[in-house]
Amino acid sequence: MVLPLRLIPRVAAAARFACAARRPISRRAPLLPPALAMAAAYSTGSGADRRLLFRQLFEKESCTYTYLLADVADPEKPAVLIDPVDRTVDRDINLIKELGLNLVYAMNTHVHADHVTGTGLIKTKLPGVKSVISRVSGAKADHFVDHGDKIHFGNLFLEVRATPGHTAGCVTYITGDAEGQPSPRMAFTGDALIIRACGRTDFQIFTLPRDTLLYPSHDYKGFTVTTVEEEVAYNARLTKDKETFKAIMDNLGLPYPKMIDVAVPANLVCGIQDPPPKI
Ligand SMILES: N[C@@H](CCC(=O)N[C@@H](CSS)C(=O)NCC(=O)O)C(=O)O
Ligand SMILES: [Fe+2]
């Protein structure tokens, strides 16, 4: 495996640890650091003053996260769905309808190996929705994105960052506000970064600001969200030197994904396939 791994300066990490250790701990301190408290607030709904509606959804067979984002300050309430799974398409569409949203884009971070994407199925149920994936992925979609592109929904957008490694076409989607209004920095990392770990990859995620919230495609341990700062300090793979990283990744001993022979061919054509099993 060729790994142009971005090395994390260990000295800087050690200094951060030392700093944190000296900080007095208040009994009344909130349990969540500010960035995480903000994520919790945004995940529970939207106040009148809030433009971004955000929901994190989970598919338990493949441990996949699907993310719903919408601009609820726009009268059309345009929404995007990141990494939908075929088995949970009806749940997701129902939620979108309940919230009065207008789904515009069904997007993938990459060609998944462990589940069939829901994008093709969504298009059959909600005509007008456009599927999105990176051009480099080699998969079919209505709209192809490249590094630096922006996918707009209302006054919000997702910026595309190429984060190859797990797959050549992996991208991370990063939130932004077209009017420059403050909003939480959120990065949807696909499998380029899994909390405290990573997919089989190198990545370009640690260049983001330290308080950026990271939302991966999967979680196998019960985590939901992390930050660049936490992963720079605690990621069990990406804090290692190149040789150690290679040794870890060469010895993961993960089983061949159960769905890979179905999922990859289906995902290369937007997930259209025989009707999925009833949930
Ligand atoms: N057991 C699962 C496959 C799990 C797996 O391989 N996950 C991928 C991301 S999905 S392509 C991965 O990179 N995991 C890294 C890790 O550390 O777990 C199945 O059979 O589907
Ligand atoms: Fe993957």
TrEMBL record:
GO terms for molecular function: metal ion binding; sulfur dioxygenase activity. Its EC number is 1.13.11.18. Its main location: mitochondrion. Residues 63-248 form the Metallo-beta-lactamase domain. One of its GO terms (biological process) is glutathione metabolic process. It is found in: Mitochondrion. It catalyses: S-sulfanylglutathione + O2 + H2O = sulfite + glutathione + 2 H(+). Its cofactor is Fe(2+). One of its GO terms (cellular component) is mitochondrion. Pfam families: Lactamase_B. Keywords: Acetylation, Dioxygenase, Iron, Metal-binding, Mitochondrion, Oxidoreductase, Transit peptide. Belongs to the metallo-beta-lactamase superfamily. Glyoxalase II family. InterPro entries: Metallo-B-lactamas, Mito_Persulfide_Diox, POD-like_MBL-fold, RibonucZ/Hydroxyglut_hydro. This is persulfide dioxygenase. It comes from the Eukaryota.
